[in-house]
Amino acid sequence: MTDNILKIEGLCKDRGKTRVLHDVSLTVSPGERVALLGHNGAGKSTLIKAVLGLIPIEGGSISVASHRPGKGAARSATAFLPEAVSFHPALTGREQLSLFARLSGERADVPGLLERVGLADALDRRIGTYSKGMRQRLGLAQVLLGHPKVALLDEPTSGLDPISRQDLYAIIDELAAGGCAVLIASHALTEVEARTDRIAIMSKGHLVANDTLTGLSAKAGLKTRLRVRAAQDADAIAAQIGGSRINGASVEILCTPDQKMIELRRIAAMGDAVADVDITPPRLEDLYRHYAREELK
């Protein structure tokens, strides 16, 4: 098994006289779920198009299951779910997915796939009557065809309600458990924070961060927030541990990750004077803001 089923090295892409991807290197291993984050225009969609072999590149290399993008073997190994899926409105869900199965040479359980994505009650309805969320579900069923080695998902939860989003990530988890390398381009930071193994952040065509959430937190050095609720006298707690008074009943202190346990021991030593402690580490939103706005050297 290839260690990195998707391998991007030194990728450069120009649009006219403007460079839109600058020496981007990124890998995704079998079974790994990687979130690709970035503001509009950061280069996420351009990178995905390059991996799909839809656009030429000016520098670097891309390998998909040990094949060059656009080659038959690379296309067979890859599934793609665009943000705005589009199907023939006159076909039913069953007919559309059956067509995709025939084109891929796959003998698929079409009703079973549609049930898996929550479309069992609509498999014989025309797609023209589907909502955006239903079309997104149909696109996800297409991704599941052929047991892909690489899945590229561009804003996969677009148009889905909260329960459907949970169902989608459960399917993504199943894909990864089966050895599929999953790359998810998304703006839904809260979702990917809990459901991915690694975070890659792009800004102005550069890959500015690429690590686990823990690793990103350690490198950024952002502070953890400790809010101490006093049993009676918040002033006494503030005098002993410092920090800022909050709402008259709590004290808030900020500390770096390496200071957290020291501060917690100081708080614990105050005994019954402390009623409760809330610990808020840096969120992905904080980390995204930190790395996306970082000056590019």
From TrEMBL:
Keywords: ATP-binding, Nucleotide-binding, Transport. GO terms for molecular function: ATP binding; ATP hydrolysis activity. Residues 6-229 form the ABC transporter domain. Pfam families: ABC_tran (PF00005). Gene3D superfamilies: P-loop containing nucleotide triphosphate hydrolases (3.40.50.300). This is Cu-processing system ATP-binding protein. It comes from Shimia gijangensis.
